User: Fold these one by one.
Assistant:
Number 1:
Amino acid sequence: MIVLYTAIAGGIGSALRFFISQLMQKTKSHARFPYSIILINLLGAAGLGLLTGAVTANHPLLMIIGTGFFGGFTTFSTFSVESATMLQQRQIGKLAVYLLITIIGSFCLFATFYQIGQHLV
């Protein structure tokens, strides 16, 4: 049953990612910079940090929500495509900002929300 719940949660996460991307693509600024991917990955890092801090390592919610929902919601592959595109277009400054915000921001949010999650238990 956990596999089924994980698959359902993954579908929900993917649908939410699609919805957020569609909303943000309606702005002209998104065409110049992948704001939706940054937002999605930062929210995913914060949410997974909170969950990981709040539940034990073997808790079923970690698999269902952590692997399913946040696995479907966040998008490393799109992050990689956006990064490669900026590199090919020689947009080095934009690429550096994108990498720093996504990588350092995700780590910092995960760590912060992990600590918050630990205090919820």
Note: The chain has a mean pLDDT of 94.
Number 2:
Amino acid sequence: MFRLLTVAIAFSMLLMLLLVFGNVVMRYVFNSGINISEEVARMCFVWLIFIGAVLAFRAKQHLAISMLITRFSPRWQKIVHVLRQLIILTVLGLLIEGGWAQTVIGLSTVTPVSGVPIAVFSGAVWFCATAMAVMTLIDLWIALRTPATAENTATFMTSLDYIEDI
């Protein structure tokens, strides 16, 4: 699944490049343009950002400050990790709820040129939050099942590593 998301990002970048570059060339050389290029490029950009956020979340590449937590005992590191995951899950729950509400609202409004529902944009938020929530639940389940020992502190701090093949 994550390879498919990586391919989707690459395809979005390629499509954005071709549409924007093609539109620039068309405007300056032929004094015309591709009307739909701006809207499609914007849709690709939004999805690229949110899919990239999912992939970064999986790889634990989001900003984290752990210099204080690493000084805690393994038991307290696990407690802080579980609390952090619960807070993340709460925020993602709000994003899922709001993203879904905006997606439903956006189904009745379409973009001016392409006629695609505006829900495409808020659907990216909903997808991102849902994917992150699933990964957070998996991480939380693993963290709760892993004993808090010095050998296992790295395990529940990077417990999403086992989903390589999904």
Note: The mean pLDDT is 84.
Number 3:
Amino acid sequence: MKLLFVVNPISGGVDKEPFLKKAKTLCKKYGIDHHIFKTTGKDDQIELKKVVQTFKPDRVVSVGGDGTTLFTSISLLDFCIPMGIIPLGSANGMATELSVNPEPMKALKDVILSNVIGSLDMLLVNDAHYCIHIGDIGINAQIVDSYEKDKNRGMATYAKYFLQELKNLTPFGVTLNINGKEIREKALMVGICNSRKYGTGVPLNVTGNPMDGIFEIVIVNKIDANSLIKAGLSKFDESFHDSQNGKVLNGDSASILFEEPRLLQLDGEVIGHFKEIKVKILKGAVKLITHNENTYVNS
């Protein structure tokens, strides 16, 4: 077996070296040929594709958070090579959704041992950008934008900007076309979901499945003290999820039109301002190394 590790050294402010040291020892013990590719922020996708072509791995291991998972998935679109996830970012929302073991070395052993290869969907946005977890427009996109510009990381920093944005909530007009229907709403946030939960564990919807060939659009109309309390509780018990504060629609393609350009974030990365957003599903785009305790595999 040949393993290619794709590592984002700075994701989540988490030191990856202790894991990599243990991973190298494990590979050496069992005679597993391996190569480590570390992102630098410069031509990473081009360089990674070169490594894939020359090293020819049997499996690729994404080491980092949701952003690293997305980067690795995009890089493998032209290759039929299965990918596994090691959750070592500040937010590991997608890994949690996919029942990846939270202990990195146990997650690595799953990647090496499992013969369960699932088909994970990806979203294509405006024919140029990809999303594998959750994107949105509105309050959370503004929070992510402020968070990215702050030198500090972690939930405390996120909470600081969350409280700031709550004071500036202003509904905006949105026209959604999905499944042949046109819907007009005033929203505080529009979620684009290949999955259900944010990295915080709070569900934006409770029906999503990242392996079913469709995605969810969530229109949030109301955010108040009661809905925030329920959102916090829904992290621990999904029965608290408040479906009365918005609409959830699903399909395999959609267009979202705003009265003026709005800020879009995808998987924790701010993409830019758009007046129109087009979304379509790339069904089974990622060959995911998983296991049968992942509830989405056989659903």
Note: Residues 93 and 198 are 6 Å apart (CA to CA).
Number 4:
Amino acid sequence: MKTTIFIIRHGKTVWNLEKKMQGSLNSPLTEEGVFQANCLAKRMSNHNIDAIYSSSSPRAIETAEHVFPNRDFAVSDAIAEINMGAWEGKTFSWIDETYPEQWHNFFKDPIHYQPIDGETYLEVNDRVSPFVKNVLENHQGQTIALVSHRITSKLIIQELMNHDFELLGDQEDILSTSLTKIVIEDGIPTLEFRSNIDHYDI
């Protein structure tokens, strides 16, 4: 039995453009973000998707609506972005200057990242892990799409691939409206591609 999971990061937002942290706060898609999502829609139209789940964040829902027009999808807080607390709405440069050690840890050493009034990676993983297990149990042998975020997508991939949590900081980044594909056959996961944006050329 083969189960296929597509993981999609939301399209580029205003705060992505302004290099601000979003987390649990929201910023709308830019024109480029909508274009990216529409390009991905053409690519995904070639696949028979049995179930679609989106983060409850408006930017993820907006992306899902563009990528999967005229399709119903479930919305879940479990795959919302990590809550970044005091960093939300702040620029990358301000955070780097104000919290240099935690800024480094956030991307390179997640297990030692300590948020200011936000979530740790482990806390996010505690909501992502049971969600992923339930999806796999409820959709065995099907093709599923998950529309999520940069950090949460990394944790979803880690969960599906059974990777050690300590290796999370070594993961390749997840680009805006990128597509990651994981196939699980006979209990063995295969990462077919990660953070792919070939559809931008469609």
Note: The radius of gyration is 16 Å.
